Amino acid sequence: xxxxxxxxxxxxxxxxxxxxxxxxxxxxxxxxxxxxxxxxxxxxxxxxxxxxxxxxxxxxxxxxxxxxxxxxxxxxxxxxxxxxxxxxxxxxxxxxxxxxxxxxxxxxxxxxxxxxxxxxxxxxxxxxxxxxxxxxxxxxxxxxxxxxxxxxxxxxxxxxxxxxxxxxxxxxxxxxxxxxxxxxxxxxxxxxxxxxxxxxxxxxxxxxxxxxxxxxxxxxxxxxxxxxxxxxxxxxxxxxxxxxxxxxxxxxxxxxxxxxxxxxxxxxxxxxxxxxxxx
Length: 279
What we know:
Layout: H1 13-27, H2 32-39, H3 43-50, H4 58-68, H5 77-85, H6 93-100, E1 105-110, H7 121-134, H8 139-155, E2 163-169, H9 170-174, H10 180-194, E3 199-204, E4 218-222, E5 228-233, E6 238-241, H11 244-260, H12 264-275
Parallel strand pairs: 1-2, 2-3
Antiparallel strand pairs: 1-4, 4-5, 5-6
Helix pairs in contact: 1-5, 2-3, 4-5, 5-6, 7-8, 10-12
């Protein structure tokens, strides 16, 4: 083939994405223009992605999945894009994000930090800056994480918005992140979140003591088919659970948690009281 550039998928994550795109296309005997026509992109754009001259985007990856019939599978190009963009994140988390973007209901419990969907940009930036100072990620990775978080939040704004139920340990509200102004704006964001028609926000107060069933963050997703998946993290790895024998005990514990925590009205009152101590 004239002017065919040899690809090296081991060169970089972008190169691996491009090589997979080419092999998937050629397996269907499609030219770059054939695939482009099915995606509403140009053949030149397809070529640039395949050869690594242009980085893929989430929109492009979703379009590839639709053209190749990969939507809803476990090996989508959207997932590959998430792993490419968020390579510094824990194993299992990119797959969770792909499921979260489609979930009908999202239930979160968090200890110590405001969960990602509720974070302000400034709060998230402060957290990632601390990771850079510790040397766990680079400044470039920190910037990518923040932008990915903003995209994650945007994916939850859709015509049929998911029900988002959040329980925060009191430590999330009391732990100062980024200074007084950043924390003040973050607490205001929580108050605004609680006022939305598709949300629920409750605080698990310190005095719950041993009645709090979870010691680490828990994410539960109810999908369109009413199945439930769970995502939990250790210090070094994330796990996406689909087996009912593992997920149902978490669902049961979450319901038990909600019966013991503060009501939304009392939770918002606590947050407003904490807000008074910030600018």
